[in-house]
Write a structure and sequence with these properties.
single chain, about 110 residues, mainly alpha, about 80% helix, about 0% strand
């Protein structure tokens, strides 16, 4: 007998929420980094550059993991890579959320059946 947990269908949305949290933090790091480069204040780069890079890699990792689970298409990690992180996460969020909700429904149905 298979039991389904109420949280079975929430995993895709939880993963998407994690991506958005990382994207917001990454954007907070990216904005001063870009502004510093534009105005010639390069002292921020050695600190904020690696932090933004780590956030970017985490965003891509989470998006790839969700795509591998079938929660959303491979377009989502691709958009994140092409836009260097937060812009792609924000642009693709709504579509990925629709796909994640559909995947969550499929997970609940599979767990129940």
């Amino acid at each position: 007998m298979t039991t389904s947990s109420p949280a079975a269908g929430t995993a895709p949305l939880t993963e998407l929420r994690r991506i958005m949290i990382v994207a917001v933090v990454d954007l907070v790091l990216l904005v001063p980094l870009v502004v510093g480069v534009i105005v010639g204040y390069h002292e921020l780069s050695p600190v904020l550059g690696p932090l933004h890079g780590a956030g970017f890699l985490l965003e891509v990792f989470l998006a790839v993991r969700g795509a591998a689970q079938g929660w959303w298409g491979w377009w989502f990690p691709a958009v994140i890579v092409v836009t260097t992180g937060p812009p792609g996460a924000f642009l693709g969020h709504r579509r990925a959320q629709r796909e994640a909700r559909a995947a969550g429904g499929r997970e609940r149905a599979a767990a129940a059946g």
